[in-house]
Structure prediction request, 330 residues.
Amino acid sequence: MQRFNHFITNIIGGLAVLTLWGCHTDPEIKISIDRMEQSLFSIPADSVEAAIPHLRQHYGRLFELYNNRIIAIGSSVSPQYPQRLTGFLTDFHMYACYRKVMAQYPDVADLEKELSEAFSRYHKYFPDHDIPTVYTIISGFNQSISVDEGLLAISLDKYLGRNEEYYIQLDMPMYLRRLTDKPYIVPDCMKALAYTEFPDTGITETVLSSLLYEGKAAYFVSQMLPDIPDSLIFGYTSAQMHWCKNNTRQMWTYLVEKKMLYNTDYLTIAKLAGPAPFTAFFTRESPGRAAVWLGYQMILSYVAHKKPSLNELMNNHDYQTILNEAKFRP
Prediction:
């Protein structure tokens, strides 16, 4: 099922780096981040080929998937691979990007603390789910968060801040550049986790199912990070949040009167749920994905009325029943 967000999930391999501490009835998770970008970019240019066996052993499948899918230079067993990896690591722009990453993120203790708190809540809600290994990487401005099979990688080159000159040179619009500020990293991790751990199993995607699925993902983030504002979950300015709150009823009325809830047209769903400077069916003052805010409000109403556990909610794909029992009346 197509999902409109800036997350691209990949299988990332490696060994779990975590411990448990605290009381026996409510253990907490401690995340320790493995900084792969440091391991790679600290290798002298004339020593890259000699370092490959160690990198392959240490990072396991992550190393191959990073090479094949993230930076796309091919398998590490290719005869041309040492030259390609050396070229990537010594590329002027990639090395300059690495220097910027290290200047902005000389250590990641604050991210480790935030992720530890979030994954402690995750472990409490879903004790049978694996806690992901966490890495930081440089993706060449590709993926923001890569996650699968209980493993997660953060591309720090995608979080250098809205005023980063590379983003401007790449013609990244401001509505996306805002999402590169550091406070978005942990919410993005939790949203990516929601998408991969609780994929939608619906056979036919409709506007309704898409908005409610995205609303569940937003609600999941709010439960993992209960202290963050909705603006960080949705990537909105204060003015955009104000617009959504003031136009919830108008958005709902429009979708109902235009009989759009059960529309299966891909482009219609993309215009409502995909990233954009504004939502095409609403006013130009609306933020992109404003209809997803509407889906989130429907989920909040459903939770208020039915009081499901988070596990029940995330595994509930009966969107018509959710709508009926939400008694949503904006």
